[in-house]
């Protein structure tokens, strides 16, 4: 092993927000980070995984022209790397196929390119669809120290780090695009501590930050020393360039950000999800149907925190079933937040539809059809405002509703982006209270009153659904942990509630397929990591 005594290597970690497909802008971002790193006296710049393309580029990775464009921009970065070493994440074409790659560029010259060994194909990841697996470790020398390179999932198993060590690595540089979900940071630290425990190599972990459709990357880059100690911890949900030194075989850094409470992390994830979805898709603003209920209230609070009040517009559309309390609370909330607010009563539209349909519905009793019409009238109004202004509609449905189909197709499901889609109703309350704790924007009455769709007189959610604490726990067990109804009942949940909840969950797959994309914050959301058949006769184990 090389002697690392008395060496000090300075590494700039760019925790950047890269945009999928914006190759030129991403390359420019890396080049500006190179300039910053040079100005800070750094020897090396470490980027996240696939920084050049953004993550995940999905089926762009099937296009040969995409790889050609990546190669052009990589060339530009190589030329801009005089006097410094850069470890750059990018998609790469080689003789053997397409790879998720990390190139080591030293003083303006491409030294070597590593190909990711372990291609994740679980949860939200589809890398086996796009890439060949690399087989060879990558170790390079800088100022007398030999660094091994790995890419994200490589470190979630033992082999790649062991190979790097066998090839002479004294420390590992890890490029990552590791999306957020609740408690993910603790999980990452544990996984990397396991690796350090196996082979004793200190690891520097650089993660991406920012929103990309349903994913949000939290950054929170970090370093672990050979003794398992955390030597560096960057802020989560911040674009940053931190300098970490490698001295006498150890990572050293002044950056040790304190972890935040779970609610704060989730709130940041939702804010970044909204801000980047709007920003990266270049929408001027958002429109939200404000009902006086907690879901639209929290959605509004997040939108204002993410975008600023001037890009957010709230519309209250009272019907004859809307309680005065709902109007009062909505008015109070928009007064606190300072957003544009309009009231558009829907009674006249309800009457027009009732009259139009009267001959067809003659002799038939009123049912959810009439309730859904109200929801659809509101959806139509919001979409008309969207068409006219270019702002998109944020839908307000939460995970409990997405699971049970408790939402109207082309009604309250009409819209462009679903902010709370992966938050259980119980967590909606928890997060609303937390947000009020750092500044009271949601009138307390909205949090305290029993939830109601207000689509018929005296309606309450709990008349048609199990209590939310029970419902959410059953959904989590069935949907996130793949437990069978038999196991859930054995854990103590009432059989009737389990049967109803599972039946609703399965029956409503068709609705979820038509639902807008929304931000994933749990370990399994109703998005890329939930791919159930709509047409299915599978009988669960009871
Ligand atoms: N497998 C399948 N594949 C394709 N399409 C299928 C289908 N099964 C039904 N459908 C279609 O879907 C229709 C039923 O769906 P939909 O029209 O949405 O109506 P539906 O699910 O019957 O009713 C909406 C439910 O959501 C509740 N809701 C509405 C609005 C807000 C809230 C809230 O508190 O947040 C709750 C409401 O109380 C009611 O229980 C059927 O009429 C049929 O056209
Ligand atoms: N009176 C209304 N004015 C404006 N929008 C409404 C109104 N009623 C419902 N909506 C829209 O439809 C969504 C679903 O509403 P609903 O009240 O039926 O269910 P909810 O899940 O309890 O939501 P919330 O907690 O926001 O009320 C609301 O979040 C809101 O965006
Ligand atoms: N991009 C990746 O390889 C990510 C895989 C890894 N399990 C993570 O979420 O951190």
TrEMBL record:
Biological classification of the source: Bacteria, Pseudomonadati, Pseudomonadota, Betaproteobacteria, Rhodocyclales
Active site: 49, 116, 152
Annotated NCBIfam families: nadE, PRK13981.1
One Pfam family named in its UniProt record: NAD_synthase
Keywords (A to Z) from UniProt: ATP-binding, Ligase, NAD, Nucleotide-binding
InterPro entries: C-N_Hydrolase (IPR003010), C-N_Hydrolase_sf (IPR036526), Gln-dep_NAD_synthase (IPR014445), NAD/GMP_synthase (IPR022310), NAD_synthase (IPR003694), Rossmann-like_a/b/a_fold (IPR014729)
MF annotations from Gene Ontology: NAD+ synthase (glutamine-hydrolyzing) activity
HAMAP family, A to Z: NadE_glutamine_dep
Originating gene: nadE
Signal peptide annotation: none
Binding residues for L-glutamine: 122, 178, 184
Residues that, per the record, bind ATP: 289-296, 396
PANTHER family listed in its UniProt record: GLUTAMINE-DEPENDENT NAD(+) SYNTHETASE, NH 3 /GLUTAMINE-DEPENDENT NAD + SYNTHETASE
Function in brief: Catalyzes the ATP-dependent amidation of deamido-NAD to form NAD. Uses L-glutamine as a nitrogen source.
Catalysed transformations (reactions): deamido-NAD(+) + L-glutamine + ATP + H2O = L-glutamate + AMP + diphosphate + NAD(+) + H(+)
Protein name: Glutamine-dependent NAD(+) synthetase
Family stated for the protein in its record: In the C-terminal section; belongs to the NAD synthetase family. Belongs to the NAD synthetase family.
Pathway, per record: Cofactor biosynthesis; NAD(+) biosynthesis; NAD(+) from deamido-NAD(+) (L-Gln route): step 1/1
Record domain CN hydrolase: where: 9-251
E.C. number: 6.3.5.1
Top-level taxon of the source organism: Bacteria
Positions contributing to deamido-NAD(+) binding: 372, 401, 511
